[in-house]
Amino acid sequence: MLFFSIIATLVVSVSVCAQSKLTYGIRAGVNFQNLNGKDSDGDNLNNDLKTGFNAGVNAEIPVGIDFYLQPGLLFSTKGAKYDFQGVEATRSISYLELPVNFLYKPELGKGRLLLGFGPYAAFAVGGKIKSGNTDIDMDFGNEVGETKPFDAGANLLAGYEYTNNFSFQLNAGLGLTNMYNRPAGDDESSLKNTGFGVSLGYRFK
Question: Using alpha carbons only, how large is the chain's radius of gyration in Å?
């Protein structure tokens, strides 16, 4: 909650100062996600990439020449594929995600280069584990055996915005929160979201 309060205060303060130059955009794309971490013996998890998607809205607030603050709200699907007793299983988690990126947008050719980084916070709104013909709803919470619903991490992005306000973007995300609720005596197990993706966007000006 502290993270959201800080971001909300920052966004409101800056937008009041730059309201006349505030712009809004939409974005959607494909995610290639994984769940990295370690098991209880300290060995790295052997998971495979899972394809997902993201879609949402953002705002751009100018904070200097060619520099912008870009808060957003995304619906994003993450997870991984893995082997479960010889059968391929898929863990899918749906998140509402709040990224807040710091952008550098210098003119390049007839458009603008996009370079950015920043933190994100996310909250799980659903999840399933599918193995063969079995489909199980995931349990979220802070008890042993449940997956923590809150996730946070860092973003990197690079892309290009054309003069017609369309843009193309490559992005990467690194989860920094251990989403696994360890049982007593387990000091090794961890589970973190990682991934990259491509997306298209449009900015209303």
Answer: 19
Beta bridge partners, 182, equal none
Q: Are 197 and 155 in contact (CB under 8 A)?
A: no
Give the closest residue to 104 by CA, choosing from 130, 128, 68. 68
Query: DSSP assignment, residue 182?
Result: P
Residue numbers of the chain with a pLDDT score lower than 50: 2, 6, 9, 13, 15-18
pLDDT in tens, 97-155: 999 999 999 999 999 999 999 999 999 999 999 988 888 999 999 888 789 999 999 99
C-alpha distance across the termini of the chain, in Å: 32
- 85 by Cβ neighbours in 10 Å (0-12 / 13-18 / 19+) ranks as exposed
List CB contacts of 21: < 8 A, sequence separation 6 or more.
61, 62
Write a three-state SS string for 21-51.
HCEEEEEEEEEEEEEEEECCCCCECCCECEE
C-alpha 45/C-alpha 67 separation (Å) is 39
d(CA 174, CA 120): 9
- Mapping DSSP onto H, E and C, the string for 113-177 reads EEEEEEEEEEEEEEEEEEECCEEEECCECCCCCCECCEEEEEEEEEEEECCCCEEEEEEEEEECC
Structure tokens given for 60:
């751009």
